[in-house]
Amino acid sequence: MDFQGVIVHWYKENKRDLPWRKTKDPYRIWLSEIMLQQTRVEQGLPYYQKFTAAYPTVFDLAKAQEEEVLKLWQGLGYYSRARNLHTTAQEIAYNYKGTFPNGYDALKKLKGVGDYTASAIASICFNRPTPVVDGNVYRVLARYFGIAIPINSTEGIKYFKALAKELILKDQPGDYNQAIMEFGARQCKPQSPNCKLCNLQNSCVAFAEGKMGELPVKLKKTKVKKRYFNYLIITDNEKTILQQRKNKDIWQNLYEFPLIETSKEVEIEHIAGHDTFLKLIHGNAYNIRLFNEELKVHKLSHQHIYTRFWIVTLHGKLKSGTVIEKVKDYPVPVLIANFVEDFGF
């Protein structure tokens, strides 16, 4: 049996029972693919189930408010995916009358849909021979064929895409694409691949040369940026202040407490004398204390957020703000959601 045959046979025997594998509905395939970008299946599955229950069709998702979509997405991370999801749902519903385009090029023009997602939808839903190349596919191909070209280099991206295109089964492209991704996720794993029970063992270059741990090759990541966030939890015990993040930055359109970002860890004197703090206090008397002595570190792909929460209790009343009981209704970053839970809002 050839490489492709072994992969597809393995898939039929070992594939996980997942809801999006029981349909060829482009809406549900698209939803699952967007959710599983940079997300493990175990983490994404509950969100897929919540979204399909809340929005059974693309029209339901299109009609939803963005804040509602962001709230349902809360905790899954990479929130631009949720914003793009909502925008594309509206485009499909209103400009395409609810029908997804059936070709790779047209799919790729949709917001938030890149090469991988367009290839997946086109092959699974419309039987187009468009190869998917994700981390699992890179790993399987690099190990099996003994390819040492860095997978995140320009040369590597082109090389692996061309190889994947050459290998794809034109009579069952959807099954093959799902098979090789599943094989990489469960058999040819990043750590401790199950080589002893692998039907590709006899023809795998990495196994023959003992290079499973060396392949695939990946260029070093860019340096992780450190950011220091100081959140001001200003309260009169009835209301607090929430603000929406509007800048083109992480967590765009999500809500948070007023923020003072600094270049390093700072003490209470710096916070109490900061212009942002003084404008929010409006000359009122207050008490201020630090909620967490130890910095909370929230790790994103290219930046680490070092966070402190400063509790500011006013002696007077806030003229405007958010009723404390309503705080949990707003879509917020998981960092804020965890604080709200710990603080008891």
Automatic annotation (TrEMBL):
Its cofactor is [4Fe-4S] cluster. It catalyses: Hydrolyzes free adenine bases from 7,8-dihydro-8-oxoguanine:adenine mismatched double-stranded DNA, leaving an apurinic site. Its EC number is 3.2.2.31. It is an enzyme of class 3 (hydrolase). Gene3D superfamilies: Helix-hairpin-Helix base-excision DNA repair enzymes (C-terminal) (1.10.1670.10), Hypothetical protein, domain 2 (1.10.340.30). SMART domains: ENDO3c (SM00478). It comes from the Bacteria. Binds 1 [4Fe-4S] cluster. InterPro entries: A/G_AdeGlyc_MutY, DNA_glycosylase, HhH-GPD_domain, HhH_base_excis_C, MIG/MutY, MutY_C, NUDIX_hydrolase-like_dom_sf. Transmembrane segments: none annotated. Keywords: 4Fe-4S, DNA damage, DNA repair, Glycosidase, Hydrolase, Iron, Iron-sulfur, Metal-binding. Residues 35-186 form the HhH-GPD domain. Adenine glycosylase active on G-A mispairs. MutY also corrects error-prone DNA synthesis past GO lesions which are due to the oxidatively damaged form of guanine: 7,8-dihydro-8-oxoguanine (8-oxo-dGTP). Belongs to the Nth/MutY family. NCBIfam families: mutY. This is Adenine DNA glycosylase. The lineage of its organism: Bacteria, Pseudomonadati, Bacteroidota, Flavobacteriia, Flavobacteriales.
